[in-house]
Request: fold
Amino acid sequence: TSSIGQLSQVDQPLNFVVHPADHEGHDLPHSAMISLNPIATIKPLQKGSSSPFHIPLQQNEGSPNFVFQWTPSKPGSYEASFLLNGLHVPGSPLLLDVFNPVNAYLSTASGPGLRYARRGTVNKFVVKSVDYEGSPVNARPVIKATST
Reply:
């Protein structure tokens, strides 16, 4: 699995483009693309989650590219594999982290870095993000603030 993850949000469409090429990076002829059997496999990584499911890749009209479109309905981590003739394309599989939308009005920030700041030092504080139901959202936020 690629260590480069993609962040997404529940009910927001995800789109990826797969551009098939030969080993030298040249576009494949149309006759070769007909038999590529393009497919994406989505595997939920949460305990007790459902089985992997397959989504056919659609070819853009007049283009050699294949498009993957999926709208996640549940938060969690997923492994997405993009295959042509049963072989992974470069960068596949990759990790998708899907989270519920953050409710800015219910989320909070706290800590000494919000009250006092010393010039030239890193000031720390914590942001607790929650969704519209008040449940914590783990979207891997990174916050650093340095006073000047």
